[in-house]
Amino acid sequence: MSEDLSVYRNSAAEQRRTGDLMALIPPGLRSALDIGARDGYLSRMLAERIPRVVALDLERPQVEHAGIECVQGDATALAYGNGAFDLVFCAEVLEHLPGDLLDRACAELARVAGQYVVIGVPYKQDLRTDRSTCQQCGTKNPPWGHVNSFDERRLLALFPGYALVQHSFVGLGSKQTNALSCLLMDLAGNPYGTYVQKEGCVACGKQLGTPAPRTIAQRCLTRAAVLTQKLQGLFLTRHPNWIHVLLKKNTG
Known about the structure:
Layout: H1 3-9, H2 12-23, E1 31-35, H3 41-47, E2 52-57, E3 68-72, E4 85-91, H4 100-112, E5 113-122, E6 132-133, E7 140-141, H5 152-157, E8 162-170, H6 179-187, H7 216-233, E9 242-249
Parallel strand pairs: 1-2, 1-4, 2-3, 4-5
Antiparallel strand pairs: 5-9, 6-7, 8-9
Helix pairs in contact: 6-7
């Protein structure tokens, strides 16, 4: 784990988010599949509660823990039978899956879960904010590679065979923009985008690169975009940053 990631993991906001996710885990489960395990941080937390945890990602995670099995796999085509795990856990993944991949992944999560599914995603994220312009192909990219925005209705519709047991919200924010501010930022080259993200361009797959130096005209456009967004902010209501849900498979 890098120093930056360690700082992020220990931040108050991240501690609240991970603590809230773990609070949704039902007692008495014997097995869990962690989708998108990355460095295994949440897999380890699951292993404190569940004897058998499988940590799955597109690249095989490297986690040294007696109760964790690390596997390479794809959430849209899981190599497990129906109901193979008591719990399927998926946080910070679904917002990254474009088009029909989202539907396919959710169908697979629902299929291999024997009892429960826990999902964590950003809540009502305005994907126009903090956009980046790819320096390779010019595509306007959503922040952090997030191509989906979720509210309760959309999230539950992805799991038609499941009932909502519990849901919770974490964090509070009002980061939203508008069509005019978004257009002005695009013309200015999106200088404040999430260029440090590891996710590549949604179009060409290459790293976004560093934003090009702005012209005087682009600096003026940036200032106008920020002012427009600030004026809008006077009329916005804040909403949670994250939504977490515990779903239970319908057995009727």
